């Protein structure tokens, strides 16, 4: 069970967090007001260059107020009550584990990718079979060759 | 779909035979060609039969696509060209002939048959030279033969026939 001292410390920490949050929100409101004021001219601004200038001004003001573009270091973070720390979550994973649209290299689980039917640990040509190159008539009536796996019966 | 090669020689009753080697007698099986193409290890070829006259000289052998063979006779010379083939799609082959001499009457015939049962034939009393185009069907194994002769009805001098596939 926590002692009075520990409770007091936690209360102080909590008050400090609330103060920081209040300050940050005030800065954000100030920045929003600044942005609204600058962007109020947007309707009469046809030049992309001018719009970019306003955005740059807003970014500068944000920097002056100590706000990052994402809205503060702890915004969207995860608060760990045991350590009293905020941390940003890891970026979303982008890999074949999350999205089938991402390319991946299939791995065959097992000792060999080419062994078929009882070949076991050898790989290559299945047991009892041999490669033979045989002539064929191709679809365009020309002569071609194919490699067959053959086995005497 | 590709067709597995038969041959190298054969006939409709036996599609896998060794090449014929004894050309002192009439061959009973023939080179199996890949339509009008060469196989990797066997050029396109046809068996020829050249007969000068009844009771006269008769010659057997093979020749290639586009090559002429010829024979002369004073009564009834003829040339027959025979080959087998495999084809994934139908194709045309030309039988060409030229007959030189006088007082003769030529006849021309051709026929084909496939192992699937397609068959066709033709008979004509042709001009002294010409080309007959034969449209052959796709088949896993087919047999083709063309024949040209010249019956010399005056018994004087000789007549010469030349023929080829192209």
Question: What would you note in describing this structure?
Answer:
The complex is a heterodimer of chains A (153) and B (166). Chain A is 35% helix and 14% strand. Chain A is of the alpha+beta class. Chain A has a domain at 4-87. In chain A, helix 1 runs antiparallel to helix 2 (48-64). The longest helix of chain A is centred in the first third of the chain and has 36 residues, at 4-39. In chain B, the strands form two sheets. In chain B, strands 2, 3, 4, 5, 6, 8, 10, 11 and 13 form a nine-stranded mixed beta sheet that branches. In chain B, strand 10 (104-114) and strand 11 form a beta hairpin. Chain B contains no helices and 14 strands. Chain B is mainly β and 166 residues long. Chain B has one domain (9-165): Sandwich (Jelly Rolls), CATH 2.60.120. Chain B is globular, with a radius of gyration of 16 Å. Chain B has strands spanning 3-4, 9-11, 14-17, 30-34, 45-51, 58-64, 69-73, 78-87, 91-100, 104-114, 119-124, 129-136, 139-152, 159-165. The chains are: A alpha+beta (153), B mainly beta (166). At the A-B interface, strand 3 and strand 4 of A face strand 1 of B. Strand 3 of chain A pairs antiparallel with strand 1 (3-4) of chain B.
From the alpha carbons, calculate the radius of gyration of chain A and give it in angstroms. 34 Å
Q: Assign the CATH architecture of chain B.
A: Sandwich
Structural class, judged by helices and strands of chain A? Answer: alpha+beta
Terminal residue distance of chain A: 82 Å
Number of strands of chain B: 14
Strand/helix succession of chain A = HHEEEE
Q: For the report, how would you describe the main beta sheet of chain B?
A: 9 strands, mixed
Task: Give the low-confidence spans of chain B.
Answer: none
Low-confidence stretches of chain A: 108-120
Average pLDDT taken over every residue of chain B: 96
Relative strand content of chain B:
over 45%
**CATH third-level topology of chain B:** Jelly Rolls
The helix content of chain B is: under 10%
Largest sheet of chain A: 2 strands, antiparallel
